[in-house]
Amino acid sequence: MLKLKPSIDDLTKSAIRSILKNKSRTFLTSLGIIIGVSSVILLVSIGNGLKAYVSDQFESLGSNLLFVMPGTIAENGPRGSSSLVKFTEKDVSNLKKINNAVVLPMVETRGKVKYLKNEEKTTILFTTYDYGKNMNSLPSSSNGRWFTQSEENQKAKVAIIGPELKTKLFGDASFLNKKINYSGTNFKVIGVLDSKGRGIGGQSSDNAIYIPISVGFVIVNNHDVQSIVIKADNKEDTEIIKKEAKEIMSKNYKKEDSFTVADQATILSSINTILNTLTIALSGIAAISLIVGGIGIMNIMLVTVNERTREIGLRKAIGAYPRAILLQFLIEAIILSCLGGGIGIILGSLGAIGIDKIFPAKVTLNSVILAFGVSTAVGIIFGVAPARKASKLSPIDALRYE
Amino acid sequence: MNMIKSSSKKAKTPLLELRNVVKTYTLGGTKFNALDGVCCKIFDGEFVAITGASGSGKSTLMHIIGLLDLPTSGEVILEGKNIANLSENQLAQIRNVTLGFVFQQFNLLSKTPAIENVILPLLYSDIPTSKHYQMGLEMLKKVELSDKIQNTPGQLSGGQQQRVAIARALVNNPKIILADEPTGNLDSKSGKEIMDLFHYLNEKEGRTIVFVTHDLNLAKQAQRIIIIKDGKIVGEEKC
User: Fold this and answer.
1) pLDDT digits (tens, 9 = 90+) for A42-52
2) Which of residues 204-233 of B touch A (CB under 8 A)?
3) Residues 119-138 in B contacting A (C-alpha not used; CB under 8 Å)
4) A118: domain range?
5) CA A213, CA A159: separation in Å to the nearest integer?
């Protein structure tokens, strides 16, 4: 095998020189890769940001929660899917037999709430006295209180509302003991939650309205319980309680996949699976633009080879062997593509940092390495064909080329 | 490389010899012989002109001599070695080390300074990069363009461009300089300068020069003229 002449170093220098001779073309050619790489970086960053955000939220809830849900986790996305089983009050009272834990049943629905002429569409949660005890945003003293156990037992028509909903309905006016109307029934407002509060499942409570579950059953005229959260008194007991809950539930629901008792890790990992799939799918779409960018590079390299046919002929006549020509054009294609990749990484990262201010996004080293690797690969893959064409030109034909 | 540069230099051995070379092209389904049994010898230090009407095969002959093309049949012997069995890479190497090319169209790289055009062949040689610039400088001095080192072809006259091309052909210190209509694109004054330069290189430096021209008057400047017609050598030398 012959020694490699010229060296990769010299070839790279001359490739950069020839790329710089045509600056606007270079930029336009790289644009496809720039767009592709920056969107891949951006989307992967958003995916990572979401994952970090979700696991953050979960960790802040504490790790002693168990979620009893109808169906499997995978089926649990679209709410109220008719094929799923519906839990009942009886399940709740059965689960309450577990020691060292609180059972927190909940029904979530959407509906209109009215105060005088103000009407708001919002989330209504039917829940229990215990549920309120476990929330982090209970009304502070001047803003009223949560409902009591006896109010729950007596089916008292009382409501606690989120701070945003309060502003929408009452503005700055006083709200305590005012009557709001939901589904034809008047409820007395007995408290407003602190802002930035969350329900036990992690959902925001700022815009929600909470009423005793006993009243809720009367209003919707059925006794279905949508979801049940079990909170262990001690984190260490979570595993045992999970087992007990499963046993209790399986007495009533024989089919193994008709319900799930999941701890936070399970739910988090299934959410992460979904987010990963989403990220990959979105990046895949962005990757299509990388392919388009690659075709752009191939196209311009073919044009370049045509334009420089005489140069190629000359180089061959004065002693360039085919591989030297091949490498020369291949390196040019790779540089074009890496240039696009580099600019794309910078733009994508800046974009992600910008987006992070309004939506969680997180640039990771992995995505940068991946994007750069892919753009180099694109340069090689789409650069080979034009470079081979160049290396195969006969010096005579090339020199005759007008 | 070493096998090409044979050390024995017998007086009778030609630098280059063509034996019964035939080159057949197929054009529109019909075959024709661009070269039809050409024999010729070129000796070290000669100044040879190849001339003939257009279509006579002189360019094809030039390409065969320059190892840019291989004969359909017949042998090409360079420095005593048959080149028939050499690979494309080995041929490229011989072109790089043993031959220097000058073209009618100059074929300089556009937007590229003269010095870089001159050292282009060195990129494909074993000569270390550190020496390239100095070697290029010397060649430009030889063709009296040491004040135009950084000028690009667009900033040079035709005659100057051809002198850069000659410097490029010389930079590798080749055995043979092959020129294809070197004055064809030049006015008569620049053409004369180029021919004078060839004479200088032949007489003072003992370089072997082979040039192709359709102009018989120009050909007469050479020591020997090979006249080619319909792919056959009709003048000067026969086998």
Assistant:
1) 988 988 888 88
2) none
3) 120-121, 123-126, 129
4) 86-252
5) 11
